[in-house]
DNA sequence: TAAAGAAGTGAATCATGATTCACTTCTTTA
DNA sequence: TAAAGAAGTGAATCATGATTCACTTCTTTA
């Protein structure tokens, strides 16, 4: 055999792939998914267009991967808040707050992840992750209902509604750079009311 | 002068235009905006492609018009519920119910209006109408806060959140043809809680 | 150093619909 | 009935990016 992939080559390939993903994400941070073209990714990463296709079968695969990675980071942050050692009510409000806080920290990215018109493939991923968010909230709401600290309700509907409320209520404020903290407080309160907190220990 | 538009011609042109809009909307009802191509509209309306361009400057104008007309119908229905001679709380819940009821009556259209990935031009219209919904709810929430039947809150945020909650919570149920009425009841309750009803006269 | 096996390249091609435009058909009026 | 002024037509063209592929360059091994 005259050629075999050495660890060094393997590592360089990994670095190349993650470099492409970085370039792609930074384009999305700047101009949303509309700015994510193969040409732009290639030139930002300093490679030829063809090279991008060595690492991703097609554009959908690249955009979806960018979406997925960014969204998982957000999801994990929310998950963390939801799994703290605190009361159900506080965990729910904290989760909403974390979501909002992070959105305000990177408004364009948040908008791209939440609401930008995107390729159907990316939109499919969006739906998936909306469900993932929903599932996280559903579990905590169900816990609250079972333990009697939340009013009786349909956790799956409340969870989806909460996710929708969080996303939609930020869309306006994300445009303006003002009053983030007021928005966050109002969102916390909305979520707490929506979920029907009975006892506030 | 050898030619002048007679009333008959004028009427025929109006009929032609509304025929094209009908054809377009029926395509959207069947397959969402993805199914809305100029070719399809022309053939469904029984005219040539070129004719479509006699009535609409470009595709964006046509799709936006379809979106606008359909959405205004929904908006008016919600507006009607919000302006009934009933308590603030009941009006809000009724409005959510009307929204949901109508969505279940035409699920594909509802999905197309609420969540389908669409051309940026249509999406812009979507944002506008989200704001319009929001404004309607905001006024009623503000009224409730002022008159002391709702807990103190930021009406603009609550309204946007409510609109988001209504849209998002229907996305799942719209896929399945089951349990519409349970969903609607759960949504009503969610909205009532979210908005913090103090007195229930 | 030579040959094999990739990775890298970017101009050329493709795909998908929108859009145009030279032409035909219809309507109106004198 | 003839000429003007539209409306109607659909094959051909355009626009926008994604995708390909023949070729070049790099890496590895014997």
From TrEMBL, chains A, B:
Annotated region of DNA binding: 37-56
Protein name: TetR/AcrR family transcriptional regulator
InterPro entries per the UniProt record, alphabetical: DNA-bd_HTH_TetR-type_CS, HTH-type_TetR-like_transc_reg, HTH_TetR
Pfam families linked: TetR_N
Taxonomic classification: Bacteria, Pseudomonadati, Pseudomonadota, Gammaproteobacteria, Cellvibrionales
Record key words, sorted: DNA-binding
Domain HTH tetR-type, residue spans: 14-74
PANTHER family in the record: HTH-TYPE TRANSCRIPTIONAL REGULATOR PKSA (PTHR30055:SF226), HTH-TYPE TRANSCRIPTIONAL REGULATOR RUTR (PTHR30055)
